[in-house]
Structure formats: structure tokens, C-alpha cells
Amino acid sequence: MSISKKLSRLACAIGATTVLSASLISADAMAVEKIRWQVPLAFPSHLVGLTTPIKHLSESLKAISGGDIQLRYYEPGELVPPFEIMDAVSNGKYPAGYTWIGYDQGTIASLPLYSGAPFNMEPPAYLAWYYEGDGKKLLEEIYAERNIHPMLCSIIGPEGAGWFAKPVEKLEDFDGLRIRFAGIGGKVLEKLGASVTMIPGGEIYQALERKTIDATEFSQPAIDKMLGLDQIIKNYIMPGWHQTLTTSHLLVNKGVWDKLEPQSRALIEMGCESATLKGFAESEWAQPTALREYEKQGVKAQVLPEEVLRELERVTNEVLDEIAAKDEMFNRVLTSQRDFMKHHSIWHGKGYLPRDYYQYE
Amino acid sequence: MSISKKLSRLACAIGATTVLSASLISADAMAVEKIRWQVPLAFPSHLVGLTTPIKHLSESLKAISGGDIQLRYYEPGELVPPFEIMDAVSNGKYPAGYTWIGYDQGTIASLPLYSGAPFNMEPPAYLAWYYEGDGKKLLEEIYAERNIHPMLCSIIGPEGAGWFAKPVEKLEDFDGLRIRFAGIGGKVLEKLGASVTMIPGGEIYQALERKTIDATEFSQPAIDKMLGLDQIIKNYIMPGWHQTLTTSHLLVNKGVWDKLEPQSRALIEMGCESATLKGFAESEWAQPTALREYEKQGVKAQVLPEEVLRELERVTNEVLDEIAAKDEMFNRVLTSQRDFMKHHSIWHGKGYLPRDYYQYE
Fold it and tell me: Which CDD domains does this entry report, sorted A to Z (chains A, B) (predicted)?
């Protein structure tokens, strides 16, 4: 081999080594794996605070990773019906789904304690219980046997207590009422004599208009606004005793999750935490605007009398105890939540100003 | 040139090109710039929810970037005294600082409206005003002329109203009181006849023990616990009317910030949002534990009577109006906050359950 040839090879080798090591440093610096997930949604992507976090997550992960991590979400039913998201993620048909996990309470009884339950915590205490207490650990345990890794990825405050053809002044007003009401709150109203049905959000307007139901709850004021219920019903009742918070979760197939680079996992987790904070801010921003618009349209925003709330809480605890007696995991989650609420009550009750301090002047 | 030599060069060129393009894809995929910031702190890094977010931020950025982004924080005074952090970031002595921006209210009158002010919003509404309303925009405007880019990077709930040698039952009890009290709340107490001093946290215990002051506020229950005040004072008063929230901010030199890759900026912003959520959760977790421990040690957790709170709010508004008359930016921020609180009050007052619903049973 000539000297020039040797030199040429050496230079080439040095060049390649340099480039290679730069590449290795870079690969070490940030997981360069490509993530392309199709993510089915349970609710439309425009519900403020409830589903808008999936937009934030998708956009920010794409921007930060320079396009390497792309979570493309699909509106309800485009890929799979809302009630089938859990199974589709579990069996790997889709790598991830973004859903209201209360939809799966028929299969996993304890999920409503995570998706929003009567007289449960409000968002600040819930975040404490979820991240610092048992919440996250127990939810991961619940989903592990279904091959799913769950992540909290949105939290908003209370719902409204619903839309009623007539005002609610006493507990007896629920007796005989034909009402659309979801989850554990529905069981409470059944105990009080209501006839509870669960019809999809898209059919509520028609059912009220045709008077096949007398009342309904759906979500928060700003989300209910999209259904246009204020056009036919003038009694809007608060607060949403039956759901003191609502969450959404990103469910990821556990096999897919475990195979990700640790850096990708950390980035997606951080993305959900950030999206949760921003979604909560959006939600608190939007609710008063919706309520003010209701006022302008002649909707009466009624607050349930405290004695009615106390009775609703009493019956709620009966219902919760009944479910806990039948389902071990429900009992574990409920006990953990009740213990923390009892503990947290001293701060919740004494540490914050009275609710009406805004209006002292 | 021999054929073998040509082939060898070709192979080498192909190899180098392949490696190079892999490297370019990787560089495109994630900003590989190295960030090494020394970050001085205004408070010790172990204050739950208040400063612990800087730990979360530092650790998660390092993990996600594979060590490329390192924010190394330094305890108060190690690099620069707490009151000099803003200047040190402004003039580029340090690229960033993590601070309680109320410390700079002598220079920028409007900052206490961001760091925690009397009868201001609680965290959920504040997050709405900050991200969705004028908050973030105005704060960026405030700091722009000082060459600083500010980022909200922690939020916690109300402080306690303080530690008092004697219980506070009526407004007159503040008259003649020698009290350590920070910020705008201190001006309110001065109007009520108190003699207000501002001594550093580390000297409070001694001042109370030597009876050179009769009372003090410092922070939230779990943070006050670290000062050991419960050993010498038995009257702990809530709620913290004078600071309905407390924030920390990451201040970044604007020249440094603007030169960062867009991906790095997006990652740091996301990191602060995530750290804020986790810090808030930690804080809500820790407060009731501190209060329960106080109870065991014979500390009486007193709640201020509503008529005292109403009077404190009346005087607060006088003080706020006086500052607003003298400082244009204070007036702009205050007006924006008051407008939003007025708007938000319908939701804050009616949308949530009464504070004591935890204890109905």
C-alpha cells in the first residue's frame, strides 16, 4: 500500500470516527428513537381542560423532539369506539389511548374513584393523593394485569350538578325524576327514587326536547355550553357534588411502554404533567365565562341547599360502602382516599379563605 | 489511482456520509446544545413545594437531555445574596436564578402581585389568569426592560396568618403589636397600628424567644415547622389572608434565553410547568401533616373570624389603591387581576362545594 493510500485511509478512518463519536454523543444526549403512535380519543379533542391536554401533549412532544415523537390523536370512533379503547390498548391494537377511564367501570369497579366520584377530593388534594400518596401506585397496579401503563394527563374541577326542568329544593325532588346521570352519582339518585338512564352526550338535547327525560348532567359549564342545553332548560344546578373533579388518562400498552428509552418515558411523563397544569388553567378560565353567558340567556344558576348536600353525601357513603363490600380493589382505593381526606380536612377547612372572599367588597 | 483505492475511497465516503446523515438526523431530532447553568436560589432548596420544584426541574432536564441540559442550583448566599439575584441575572453574571420575586418589590412595585398578595386569587384561578389571561404577558413586559425572561416555576396555596403570643379575636388586637410581616400585608397591619418589622427567616426564632417581637408570619405550616416556632408560641392563626398563594420563578438572562435553540426553550418551559404541578401536589400533601403535629404539641390552630377577615380585606383594598395610584404597572396588573376575580367569582363561589364538605359525616 502506498503512503498516500495509507494516509488517505487514516484520514478517512479519523473522519469516520469523529463523525461516529459525534453521533454517539448525540444519541446518548437524547433518545433518537422514533415514536409514531395512533391515539384514539374517548371524547372530542376540543373539550376545554378535559381533552385539550392531548393537543398540548402531542404538539409539545413533537416540537421538543424535533418530530421524533409524534402522538397523532383521532376523534371518537375514527379508530375505535370510546368504550373499546381500554381493550384496544391492552391487546396492542393501538399503542395508546386518551380516555375518560370511568367508561370502563363495568369491567373495573374502582376506576370511577379516579375519573371523578361523588364527594371526592377537589383537584389540589387529589394531586397530592395521586402523586404523593397511594393514588398513582394503586392505579398502576389496577392496570398492570391488563398490560396497560396509565398516566394522569388532565384534571379539571367540579362538574355542574345538572340541568333540571324544575328547580331542586329538597331531597324529595329527586324522587320519580327521569334523569340522565353517569357513574356512582347515578346510583345515589336511584336510591333517592330517580329513574336513571345513561344516554350518550350527543343525544341529550333531543331527549330533553322530547321530554323523554326531565333532567341531565353532562360536564362542566363550559363543556355543557357546547350541547346547547341552555336553549331548552332554564334551571342549572351547582355544585357538582357527584363529581368533584374529572380526569383524563393516557393509557399506554405496557409492552410498548417498557420498550421505550428511559429518556422518552421521562419526556412523555413530563409532557402529561405540563399538559395537566395548562388544561386546568384553561378550564378555570372558561367556566365563569360560560356561567355569565348562561345568566344573559335567562338561565338561573341555583346552588343546592346545604341540607340537600349533606343528605346526598350520606347516601353517597352508603353507595360507596356497598361497592367496597363487593370489590376488594375499590375498597383499597376508597379507604386510602377517605384516610387522606380525613387527614387533609384540617388544611382544606381552615387553611383557605371562605369561598365568598372574592366578593367581600 | 488503482481501482482498489477508488473503491476504498468510495466505501469510506459512503460510510462517512451514512454516519454523517445519521448524526444530522439526530441533531435535527433534538437540540444537542449543551446548557450548563449555575442557578442561585433565594430560599433553601428543601422548602416543600416552594423551592423543591427547582430540584425536579434540574433532575428531569438532565435525565431527558441525557446530561446535555444541567441546571446546577446553589443554596442562598453561596453564589450571591438572595436580594441580588435579579441584578445578577439581569447583568449576565449568572444565566439564571430561582427566586421569590417579592424580594424585589422595592425596585419593581408590581412584583408582589405575582409572588403572593393579600386577598388575591388562590392557585387554580391564578393559573388561569397567568396562562390564559394577562398574567404571563404582563410579567414578561415587566422584566423585558431588565433583560430578563421570567417563568412561573412553582405555586403553592395560602400561607398561615402567623404565630401570635396572644390569640387574635378582633381587629384592635393588631394595634400596637410588634410583628414580623412581609410585603403588602405588612402595610395593611401598619394601617391597623401594628409596628411591622421585616427580619430574615433565620432570626425569627430568637426574636420571639427574646420577646423583641410579639408575632410573626413566615410561610405555610409545613415550612414554618422547620423554624421550630411551635416550641415557643402556641397560637397559630389561619387562613393566610395576606398571601393566598406563593410562587417561585425561574429568571433567565434574556440574551441567554433568546440564543437557546427553540427546542431547548420548549423543554425548559415544559419542565417548569411539570415541576409546578408536582410541587403543588407535595405542598398539599405536607400541610395537613404539619398541622396535625402542631395539634399534638398543644398549638391551637385558630381561624380568624369572618368580620376580622372582612375588615382586613377592606384595608387591603385601600393599601392596594394607594400603591396603584403611584405606580402605573402595579395599577395595570391589579386592574387585570381584579377584573378576572370579579368575573371568576361566580364559579369560585357557586361551582365548588362548601369548604367543610369533607367533614359532613
Answer: PBP2_TRAP_ketoacid_lactate_like
C-alpha–C-alpha distance, residues B62 and B59, integer Å: 5
Domains of chain B: which residue ranges?
31-155+245-285
Question: What CATH code would you report for A162-244+287-351?
Answer: 3.40.190.170
Contact (CB<8Å) A351/B23: no
C-alpha cell at B332: 395595570
> With contact defined as beta carbons under 8 Å apart, do A127 and A93 qualify?
no
DSSP string, B107-150: T-TTTHHHH--TT---HHHHHHHHHTSSHHHHHHHHHHTTTEEE
The residues with which A39 forms a beta bridge, in sequence order, are A73
Q: How many CB atoms lie within 10 A of CB B310?
A: 14
Q: In the beta sheet, which residues pair with residue B179?
A: B196, B215
Q: Shortest Cα distance from B220 to chain A (angstroms)?
A: 9
Q: Which of A89, A277, A304, A288 is nearest to B274 (CA)?
A: A277
The enclosing H or E element of B282 equals helix B262-296
- How far apart are the C-alpha atoms of B178 and B193, rounded to whole Å? 10
Any B CB within 8 A of A348 CB: yes
Q: ipTM of this complex > 0.95?
A: no
Residue A188 C-beta-side C-alpha neighbours within 13 Å: 26
Query: Residue B339, Cβ neighbours under 10 Å: how many?
Result: 13
Task: Find, among B94, B67, B132, the residue nearest to B251 by Cα.
Answer: B94
**Stretch A154-163: mean pLDDT, rounded?**
96
| A349 CB within 8 Å of a chain B CB | yes
With CA atoms as reference, the chain A residue closest to B25 would be A32
A249/chain B closest Cα distance in angstroms:
16
Which of B21, B269, B346 has the highest number of chain A CBs within 10 A, making it the mutation to test binding with A? B346
When CB atoms are compared, the residue of B12, B310, B350 closest to A16 is B12
A contact residues 267-306, partner B, Cβ 8 Å cutoff: 267, 270-271, 273-274, 276-278, 280-285, 287-289, 291-292, 295, 301, 303, 306
Nearest CA-CA partner of B198 in B185, B210, B209: B185
Dihedral sign, Cα of residue A29, residue A34, residue A39, residue A45: positive
Nearest partner of B77 among B116, B45, B123, judged by Cα: B45
- Does residue B128 belong to the interface with chain A, where contact is any CB pair within 8 Å? yes
User: Contacts of residue B289 in chain A, CB cutoff 8 Å?
Assistant: 343
Q: pLDDT (tens digit, 9 = 90+) per residue, B4-56?
A: 444 344 333 333 333 333 333 343 445 569 999 999 999 999 999 999 999 99
CATH of B31-155+245-285, one of 3.90.550.10, 3.30.70.2740, 3.40.50.2300, 3.40.190.170: 3.40.190.170
Task: Identify the architecture of domain A33-158+246-285 in CATH.
Answer: 3-Layer(aba) Sandwich (3.40)
Phi, psi values for residue A193, rounded to 5°: 95, 5
Give the whole-angstrom CA distance, residue B322 versus residue B312: 15
